[in-house]
Automatic annotation (TrEMBL):
Cofactor requirements of the protein: a divalent metal cation
Keywords on record: Cytoplasm, Hydrolase, Nucleotide metabolism
Catalytic activity as recorded in UniProt: dTTP + H2O = dTMP + diphosphate + H(+); UTP + H2O = UMP + diphosphate + H(+)
Intracellular or extracellular location(s): Cytoplasm
Protein function: Nucleoside triphosphate pyrophosphatase that hydrolyzes dTTP and UTP. May have a dual role in cell division arrest and in preventing the incorporation of modified nucleotides into cellular nucleic acids.
Pfam families per the UniProt record, alphabetical: Maf (PF02545)
Family named by the database record: Belongs to the Maf family. YhdE subfamily.
NCBIfam families: maf
Protein's name in the database: dTTP/UTP pyrophosphatase
Gene3D superfamilies in the record: 3.90.950.10
Length: 183
């Protein structure tokens, strides 16, 4: 099985679930199309990643799993921060509010392509500017959608409540993925 993702968290979740995955990241254009909603976007990108890797690298009948995660706040899309100022802007916007984390997953098995989106609601505590600056200074936000990692030593301190799958926020709703692989 191939995992079309460079995300260390996805690799670990698949390996812990017992899949001896080969890692071949997909290099695709991840920009949103005009008018495209965040949930449509993650599903399309997951499919694009799976199809790109499947057509270029998969052996006949080999399964390819791909995913894409974004944060959506009031319908606005928050991807990975461009720099520290961008990370501060995102965290200020998320402070005291509930946002959605959406992960699109695609499983390509030859001609058969299945995809789904899983959504988790995450509520942040009110964050002071000092807290945001301190969090950005840890470096944790930089490679993560929405500029935080719920699994991180510091990121977990921002979160008041979640409704949905924790692993979906981390980047892969592993229970759903395993169930989909078994169908
Ligand atoms: C919100 C949130 C995101 N993230 C991560 C998950 C993803 O790795 C990243 C979103 O970027 P993605 O573009 O989904 O994934 P990636 O670039 O890391 O890997 P690839 O494109 O090769 O599959 O943000 C966390 O780790 N914790 C969190 O709490």
């Amino acid at each position: 099985m191939i995992l079309a993702s460079q995300s260390p968290r996805r690799i670990e979740l698949m390996r812990e679930a017992g899949f001896d995955v080969q890692v071949i990241p997909a290099d695709i254009d991840e920009s949103a199309r005009p008018g495209e909603g965040p949930f449509e976007l993650v599903e399309r990108l997951a499919r694009a990643k799976a199809e790109a890797v499947s057509s270029a690298h998969a052996a006949p009948g080999e399964t390819v799993v791909a995913a894409d995660t974004i944060v959506a706040l009031d319908g606005e899309l928050l991807g990975k921060p461009a720099d520290e100022a961008d990370a501060r802007r995102m965290l200020r916007a998320l402070s005291g509010k509930t946002h959605q984390v959406a992960t699109g997953v695609c499983i390509a098995r030859g001609e058969r392509i299945d995809s789904f989106v899983d959504i988790t609601d995450v509520t942040f505590y009110e964050l002071s500017d000092a807290e945001i600056d301190a969090y950005v200074a840890t470096g944790e936000p930089m490679d993560k959608a929405g500029a935080y990692g719920i699994q991180g030593t510091y990121g977990r301190m921002l979160v008041e409540r979640i409704d949905g799958d924790f692993y979906n926020v981390v980047g892969l709703p592993i229970a759903k993925v395993v169930r989909a692989l078994n169908t």
